[in-house]
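Order emerges. As here.
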Amino acid sequence: MNPADIRNKFGVTQKVFARWCNTATGTIRKWESGEQAPSGPAWRLLDALLWMDNRGLLKDFLDDIEQEKTS
């Protein structure tokens, strides 16, 4: 899967996906356009998001991120 497929799987905007990945929206755009590939650690994070989603853990993780953002 490429970054755009992963983001689309979750049905979120580039801005939200960038927040999940702790990176800039421009970086997400570059990944999705093929201008730049995610680094090794970024790929591991994307894999972790998929792993958590497949096990039903992603919602709790994302809820925690949103709570931290509003704190």
In short: Helices lie at 3-10, 14-21, 25-33, 40-54, 58-70.
